[in-house]
């Protein structure tokens, strides 16, 4: 049997098995009432399902508080979600005991936002990069030293110049390269990059992104790339997942999603990016998404975006939308999705 390619390119090939498959993941945190703040439960991640395939980069975008980083931590079981399934390389991580989970994590690594905060300030660069090798008892001291030199070369740092430095002697970009060298030390299959370049200036961002792409090509890595910068995510991703208030609003091929978003929230996020108006050729003034995001302590009934959505109708308050496929590989959770280019149907008036 043949099916449409999982990246939505239209190629009729059977897709590979996903490297990572999350199904109906729920992560909630109880909050105690204190100081006039109402207690309750923070619905951080609500029934999120997605896949990452071998060799691809899946971007995850959304506003602050949308649940992107919580989803990333949930995928590596830190902390373990309340419910759902998370299969990595065919193994359900939710069922693993601590020791088994530690073994599984060697192939599933993270690169965090703050390069300084993720590195022990007392350790030298060579020690930092060697730490995962020591932790998993890889090789002898001499083979680990050679591996550290190889890893530093791989991320563009001369071992003879940087191996004995400490984090405070490095720039932000150099610290992030050290963090990347640590992350790839055990030959992982998947890197989860949680805002990994957001604290870097634009020039250094571009260099680190080029490094990620080169490592993907040379090592066969897959990425789950989390960021709030939509333009940046478009640059690096094969597919993009859009999160709003703990849920997936849209998921599809990057090119199609940016060209023709089907969820009003995605369209609002894209309107916030400066760019050229194709009709006039002039610079388009960015517009912030309408309204304020609701509290995850008390999300709206039905569609969680309805209180900010210009297309909302009564059905949106009464019925929670599900993620439906609207085009090959392109899904959106909306009762009244936006029309694709060239369509004459007014989907905003359907009942």
UniProtKB/TrEMBL annotation:
Record region (Disordered): 276-305
Keyword Lyase: no
Domain of life where this protein originates: Bacteria
PROSITE patterns linked to this entry: ABC_TRANSPORTER_1, ABC_TRANSPORTER_2
Annotated GO biological process: peptide transport; transmembrane transport
SUPFAM superfamilies assigned: P-loop containing nucleoside triphosphate hydrolases
Compositionally biased region (Pro residues): 288-299
Stretches that traverse the bilayer: none
Signal sequence annotation: none
Residues covered by the ABC transporter domain: 20-270
Protein keywords: ATP-binding, Nucleotide-binding, Transport
Molecular function via GO: ATP binding; ATP hydrolysis activity
A UniProt-annotated Pfam family: ABC_tran
InterPro entries hit by this protein: AAA+_ATPase, ABC_transp_ATP-bind, ABC_transporter-like_ATP-bd, ABC_transporter-like_CS, Oligopep_ABC_C, P-loop_NTPase
NCBIfam families per UniProt: oligo_HPY
Family: Belongs to the ABC transporter superfamily.
Protein name (record): Oligopeptide transport ATP-binding protein OppF
Organism this protein belongs to: Pseudonocardia autotrophica
């Amino acid at each position: 049997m043949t099916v449409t390619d999982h990246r939505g390119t239209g190629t009729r090939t059977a897709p590979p098995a996903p490297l990572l498959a999350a199904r109906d993941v729920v992560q909630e945190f109880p909050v105690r009432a204190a100081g006039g703040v109402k207690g309750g439960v923070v619905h951080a991640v609500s029934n999120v399902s997605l896949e990452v395939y071998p060799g691809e980069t899946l971007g995850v975008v959304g506003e602050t508080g949308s649940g992107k980083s919580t989803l990333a931590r949930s995928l590596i079981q830190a902390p373990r979600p309340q419910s759902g399934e998370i299969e990595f390389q065919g193994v359900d991580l939710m069922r693993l005991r601590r020791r088994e989970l530690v073994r599984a994590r060697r192939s599933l690594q993270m690169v965090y936002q703050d390069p300084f905060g993720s590195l022990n300030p007392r350790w030298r660069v060579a020690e930092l990069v060697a730490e995962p090798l020591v932790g998993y008892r890889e090789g002898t001291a001499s083979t680990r030293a050679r591996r550290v030199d190889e890893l530093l070369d791989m991320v563009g740092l001369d071992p003879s110049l940087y191996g004995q430095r400490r984090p405070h002697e490095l720039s932000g970009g150099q610290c992030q390269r050290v963090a990347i060298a640590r992350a790839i030390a055990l030959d992982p299959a998947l890197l989860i990059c949680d805002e990994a370049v957001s604290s870097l200036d634009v020039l250094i961002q571009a260099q680190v992104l080029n490094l990620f792409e080169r490592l993907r090509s040379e090592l066969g890595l897959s990425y789950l790339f989390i960021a709030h910068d939509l333009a940046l995510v478009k640059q690096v991703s094969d597919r993009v997942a859009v999160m709003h208030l703990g849920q997936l609003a849209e998921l599809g091929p990057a090119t199609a999603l940016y060209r023709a978003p089907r969820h009003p929230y995605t369209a609002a996020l894209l309107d916030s990016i400066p760019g050229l108006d194709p009709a006039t050729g002039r610079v388009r003034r960015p517009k912030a998404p309408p309204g304020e995001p609701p509290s995850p302590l008390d999300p709206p009934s039905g569609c969680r975006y309805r209180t900010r959505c210009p297309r909302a109708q009564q059905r949106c308050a009464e019925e929670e939308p599900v993620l439906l496929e609207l085009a090959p590989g392109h899904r959106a959770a909306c009762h009244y999705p936006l029309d694709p280019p060239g369509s004459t149907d007014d989907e905003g008036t359907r009942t």
